[in-house]
Design a protein that fits this description.
The complex is a heterodimer of chains A (about 375) and B (about 475).
Chain A (H helix, E strand, L loop, with lengths): L1 E2 L2 E4 L3 H12 L4 E4 L8 H4 L3 E2 L17 H22 L10 E5 L2 H16 L4 E5 H7 L9 E5 L3 E2 L2 H14 L3 E3 L6 E4 L4 E5 L2 E5 L1 E4 L5 H7 L7 E10 L10 E4 L5 E4 L5 E4 L17 H14 L7 E12 L6 E4 L6 E5 L3 H17 L17 H7 L1
Chain B lengths: L2 H4 L5 E9 L3 H12 L4 E4 L15 H7 L4 H12 L3 E3 L2 E6 L5 E5 L6 E10 L3 E3 L12 E2 L1 H8 L9 E6 L4 H10 L3 E7 L8 H5 L4 H16 L4 E3 L1 E8 L5 E8 L2 E6 L2 E5 L2 E3 L2 H5 L4 E4 L4 E4 L12 E3 L9 H18 L7 H24 L4 H4 L7 E3 L4 E2 H9 L5 H8 L12 H12 L15 E2 H11 L1
Parallel strand pairs in B: 1-2, 1-6, 2-3, 6-19, 8-15, 9-10, 9-15, 10-11
Antiparallel strand pairs in B: 4-5, 5-6, 7-16, 12-13, 13-14, 17-18, 20-21
Bound molecules: flavin-adenine dinucleotide.
Flavin-adenine dinucleotide binds next to helix 1, helix 2, strand 14, strand 18 and helix 9 of chain A.
């Protein structure tokens, strides 16, 4: 049995950023990752840094996310992202070229204005421009765009680089990264948690569950039943185009769509379109209808996409909460057992790492997160109260 | 004739059987099925049927040099005569969960889904190229390409050519080059197939193959082309103009240099299994090649009911085996579809012949066995993934990080993420990772689209629904 201070379960961006913050603060940290790190949500993500208010519904999403609640989190995350390449001493292909959220109908324009008002109240600098002005700035936009909201802080970081950079930095601060170590059991022996992977064991006062789509499975090992369900969504990428083909991120206020050109020149097209059923092992399959649906949506706003070549598609898994809001905090019934996951975890990862560090150390976090705590998702506790 | 086959109006087509790939195995499978009364679609990405082996001559070349491999011409004629619906210039780029095949025309983007009670994958093979410093120079090509230039296109490949790599294919290519008037400096073979051994004695059971070999060796001897065994290319060197000028080979402890303007090199073939992977048939990993191989029965039936692998897609065994495999799959499918089946006697004869050809393929790969690990010891600066410019050193560094496996090395380096989807480098990346981590060789999984397609072709899938 290895004794350590903290065991982080899951080597995605949340586990990596949390391990980094805790190791940097002087704690002994072990990251246990089922397979190779960064292969699941964090390696398959679109990698957008969503700083302006989010589009509230993925295609097929039952409940709309509360985008107002996200805004202060996004704003703090935005600042943290700006410092990240220096902090991790790594090239993350961080680009902050800004982003448009476009509207094609009068109702959507109205929605843009409502969003804009909220953002302004919260101190985020955004701008609403006419369709013509949007096209002047980005000629690739179609005639159907009648207005767009511009946020200069929107951007992108290369997901293939970020999590490995976090893990590398965590390792420099002494964290142990144990890949190919699926957690198979978690017990509490009064004083500490004993975390098992096959015949190996770690003893730690604190366990952090950042297992992404498997977050509920890992919590269940500790006897905690969480109301979270994994889903798979899909991405599409074109062959390389000359840089400057698209100058910024483009999203849609009324539909699932995010399009941008990445550093290598490929154009990445997503928007949360559903893939086939989530698979716990191996990759979920891309859904044919979502390929055409997402591409139609994107090409309506960016007609030049029609003339490009589709290079590859893939599905990625995501942990969804019933209210579509993130979850972060200590499980009330299991002191020392922390959970973090849910939507927009890529954008929020630098923040969630710091917040978890603060919560573990018993300090008040950089951003208040009590309302995003685990209680609302603990199934057994809900039952007990009744 | 091909023009009308390119464009298909209906966006969903249903057949008794769909055959993907118009090479020897696909042609035979399609003919046998159609002759028995099945409605058969044969889909081929190229503009002509024939595949690699029966590649067609066209236009002036055909007029001047005559037909190339006339048995291919007659096989294609039989296929058409049997009533097979032929779709040339059509790429199968993906599959749906209902097991329909997603296709587009390669000349004008569209979307046509093919569904069938039986799917026959006859997608052929790719040449197995293992990178070495200088392999990207102009003047370096694969033996298959050299063969194509010398035979189908009847053009001179170069003034002086070195053939290198491994496998029985190098010899007929050398002969074809000689016949086209090109000088062949040497055949550099990594294995030692031509030394007396117990294994070699096994080939006595395959007299036809031995006769071929003897013929090739006689031609090479007549032209004084040396066959250097147990040797491999270690670097290709450029001339002042950037074109290939010389090739250095390692032969035991000795290095030799050949001044040549062309190098044709590959280590045999790798089965094309992308479509089989997308259809989710059970595969094993071919540890020497680092590619998935479908698990099949003697008829090519895979683990997915109604999906068959034939030809080189089922495992490398050559053109003769491909034809027999096509026949055997068709026989099983005819049974499945309730159509007349061949006689028990014919069936036994084909099964026996197929087993014999498979045994010969195994024997041949044993005869040509060579140290594949040595091939993977190319210097760190060697470019491995040409599409994304990733070197052997970068792949090794990612593999040695301690937390990467085969697939995360792809993510960490971008090797295999480019235009060719890893068709060229994936097996080498697998080998390099395995050499660094000591883990068994893994594979890069296939993704849709199998080859890049126009965005508008993918969009057309929906116009069809609307
Ligand atoms: C296609 C797609 C596009 C997206 N686009 C965006 C975007 O543009 N912007 C944005 O902000 N967010 C986006 N998201 C969401 C965001 O990327 C993810 O929410 C985030 O990456 C999740 O990170 P994570 O660390 O929580 O989980 P993951 O990255 O999924 O990591 C969880 C890890 O836990 C491991 N694990 C599971 N079980 C065990 C076990 N028993 N023992 C040990 N380890 C285990 C897994 O192997 C995995 O590596 C997108 C997600 C997807 C799928």
């Amino acid at each position: 049995m290895t004794t350590t201070d903290i065991v982080v379960i899951g080597g995605g961006i949340l586990g990596a950023s949390t391990a980094y913050q805790l190791a940097r603060a002087g704690h002994r940290v072990t990251v246990l990752e089922r397979g190779a790190p960064n292969r699941e949500g964090s390696g398959t993500t679109a990698g957008n840094l969503h700083i302006q208010g989010i589009h509230t519904r993925r295609p097929g999403q039952a409940v709309a996310a509360d985008n107002l609640r996200f805004l202060p989190l996004q704003r703090t995350a935005s600042t943290l992202w700006s410092q990240l390449p220096d902090e991790l001493d790594a090239d993350l292909e961080l680009t902050r070229n800004g982003g448009f959220m476009v509207a094609e109908t009068p109702e959507q324009v109205q929605e843009l204005h409502q969003k804009f008002d909220l953002e302004t109240q919260l101190g985020l600098t955004c701008e609403i421009v006419s369709g013509d002005e949007a096209r002047r700035r980005m000629p690739a936009l179609s005639e159907t765009v009648i207005a767009a909201e511009w946020c200069a802080e929107d951007g992108y970081a290369n997901p293939l680089l970020v999590t490995p950079a976090y893990l590398g930095a965590a390792r420099r601060y002494g964290a142990q990264v144990e890949a190919f170590s699926p957690v198979t059991g978690i017990e509490h022996d009064g004083g500490a948690y004993v975390v098992r992977s096959g015949h190996r064991e770690w003893s730690a006062g604190v366990v952090i569950d950042t297992a992404g789509p498997w977050i509920a499975d890992v919590a269940a090992l500790a006897g905690i039943r969480l109301d979270m369900s994994p889903v798979a969504i899909q991405m599409h990428i074109t062959t390389r185009m000359p840089l400057g083909t698209l100058t910024c991120l483009v999203q849609h206020i009324g539909a699932g769509m995010s399009v941008k050109q990445v550093g290598a020149g490929n154009i990445l097209i997503g928007g949360g379109w559903p893939a086939e059923a989530f698979r716990a092992h191996g990759r979920s399959r891309v859904a044919t209808d979502s390929i055409s649906g997402n591409l139609h949506q994107a090409a309506a706003v960016l007609p030049l996409l029609r003339d490009l070549r589709l290079l590859r598609t893939w599905a990625g898994p995501l942990a969804a909460t019933p209210d579509e809001m993130p979850v972060i905090g200590e499980v009330p019934s299991s002191p020392g057992f922390f959970v973090a996951g849910g939507t927009y975890a890529f954008t929020l990862a630098p923040l969630w790492g710091l917040v978890l560090r603060d919560l573990v150390e018993g300090n008040s976090p950089l951003e208040p997160v009590a309302d995003l705590g685990v209680d609302r998702l603990v199934l057994d506790a809900v039952a007990h109260q009744r | 004739m091909a023009a009308s086959e390119d464009t298909v109006a209906p966006s969903r087509l249903d057949f008794d059987a769909v055959v993907v790939g118009g090479g020897p195995s696909g042609l035979v499978a399609a003919r046998e099925l159609a002759t028995a009364g099945a409605r058969v679609a044969l889909i081929e990405e190229n503009s002509e049927l024939g595949g690699q082996y029966y590649k067609r001559r066209r236009g002036q070349v055909l007029a001047q040099y005559g037909d190339y491999r006339p048995d291919g011409t007659s096989l294609i004629a039989q296929v058409r005569h049997a009533g097979v619906e032929v779709f040339t210039n059509r790429l199968v780029w993906g599959t749906s969960t209902d097991r329909s095949l997603l296709t587009t025309s390669t000349t004008s983007p569209d979307a046509v889904r093919f569904s069938a009670r039986a799917i026959v994958v006859a997608a052929g093979a790719t040449e197995h190229v293992v990178p070495f410093p200088g392999w990207q120079l102009p003047g370096v090509m694969t033996p298959g390409h050299a063969m194509h230039l010398a035979t189908t296109d009847a053009v001179r490949v170069g003034n002086r050519v070195l053939l290198a790599g491994s496998g029985p294919f190098l010899l007929p290519v050398a002969c074809a080059l000689l016949a086209s008037g090109t000088e062949v400096a040497a055949v550099v073979e990594a294995g030692r197939p031509l030394r007396p051994s117990l294994r070699a004695a096994g080939s006595l059971r395959h007299p036809g193959m031995l006769a071929d070999l003897a013929r090739y060796l006689t031609i090479l001897a007549k032209h004084r082309v040396p066959i250097i065994q147990g040797a491999r290319v270690h670097e290709a060197l450029a001339q002042g103009n950037g074109h290939l000028g010389a090739v250095a080979i390692t032969h035991g402890q000795v290095t030799r240099t050949f001044e040549v303007d062309t190098l044709a090199t590959a280590f045999g073939f790798r089965p094309a299994t992308e479509l089989l992977q997308l259809l989710e048939v059970d595969c094993t990993v071919d540890a020497t090649l680092g590619v998935p191989l479908p698990v099949t029965d003697a008829h090519g039936a895979t683990s997915v009911p109604g999906v068959y692998a034939v030809g080189e897609s089922r495992g490398i065994a050559g053109n003769k085996a491909a034809r027999v495999r096509g026949w055997l799959a068709a026989a099983a499918i005819r049974d499945r579809l309730g159509l007349p089946t061949p006689s028990a006697q014919q069936m036994r004869a084909h099964l026996r012949r197929s087993a014999r050809l498979d045994a010969f393929a195994t024997l041949s790969s044993e005869l040509y066995a060579h140290d594949r690990r040595a091939l993977l010891q190319m210097p760190d600066h060697t470019m491995v993934c040409r599409c994304e410019s990733v070197t052997a050193g970068e792949i090794r560094a990612a593999a040695r990080l301690g937390w990467n496996d085969r697939n995360s090395v792809k993510g960490a380096t971008r090797a295999g993420m480019g235009l060719c989807q890893g068709r060229e480098c994936a097996a080498t990346v697998s080998g390099l990772v395995s050499a660094c981590t000591g883990e068994p060789v893994g594979c890069q999984p296939a993704r849709m689209p199998v080859k890049p397609i126009p965005v508008s072709a993918a969009m057309a899938l929906e116009e069809e629904i609307a």
